[in-house]
């Protein structure tokens, strides 16, 4: 590495970023839209011969040109990115990689969590991270015959979420309720968790869980080496469901309840993949028609749009009293202001 230098590339550095894009494109990779750190390895002629990035606790957009592969540059790149992550306080790291690259990351101490056929492998830098997550999930002292599950983001918690959870609660002896804990939504997770718990406090057969880094959201899923949008959606869904199946087997979950999807293409495709994979794994999947108001299905997107437009009368018809009352507080009004500043509150 005496002839090479590795440095951070800032968004304002136009020429360096052009080199990054050119290198990624040559390696069949599109630059991920979610990046918070990018670096490059430059030779003595200031030519880029390696690049890699971070987002949150993940490593991504890693590329070395063909004529420099075999020079241990990838090891140098990953060592640098891991060092940056550790400086940030991120010690539990994740990487999504092509199947052919998985052995390389395994040699660097990454452990496979799940994979999707020939498309993608999800790995972490701990050999017991996912196992520890499973062991930390709260279980019932005695496992009843009918154990189901619901996963909600609740951005924000609505009457539709409440209706789905109530139905699961009424039709089963135990509900494992997973709350997407990644903080990438307009409504922060601490608020979402509080509203979910308040809106389901009357149900006595629920065990609450956070998803941690193992059930994935659109915000963090990498799409940079998948060929088209539908492939991205289906691959994300397949990986997410592979992880859920492992969780379900650990908790003896026999079914999952989801709302149908009249609006979002992403969720509709996700549900298609989920039905196929869960049925194949022997887990029943119940797709429940959405609760409606004014003959229209309730959705979090509609609620955010109504908040953005100051249409509180519409919001009140779509959320539990606990959610509405929260938005009337000073903290709630700050979130409304945040939603108003957002350029797009819809979910595709």
From TrEMBL:
Pfam families: Citrate_ly_lig. Its EC number is 6.2.1.22. SUPFAM superfamilies: Acyl-CoA N-acyltransferases (Nat), Nucleotidylyl transferase. InterPro entries: Acyl_CoA_acyltransferase, Citrate_lyase_ligase, Citrate_lyase_ligase_C, GNAT_dom, Rossmann-like_a/b/a_fold. Keywords: ATP-binding, Ligase, Lyase, Nucleotide-binding. It catalyses: holo-[citrate lyase ACP] + acetate + ATP = acetyl-[citrate lyase ACP] + AMP + diphosphate. GO terms for molecular function: [citrate (pro-3S)-lyase] ligase activity; acyltransferase activity, transferring groups other than amino-acyl groups; ATP binding; lyase activity. PANTHER family: [CITRATE [PRO-3S]-LYASE] LIGASE. Acetylation of prosthetic group (2-(5''-phosphoribosyl)-3'-dephosphocoenzyme-A) of the gamma subunit of citrate lyase. This is [Citrate [pro-3S]-lyase] ligase. It comes from Loigolactobacillus coryniformis subsp. torquens DSM 20004 = KCTC 3535.
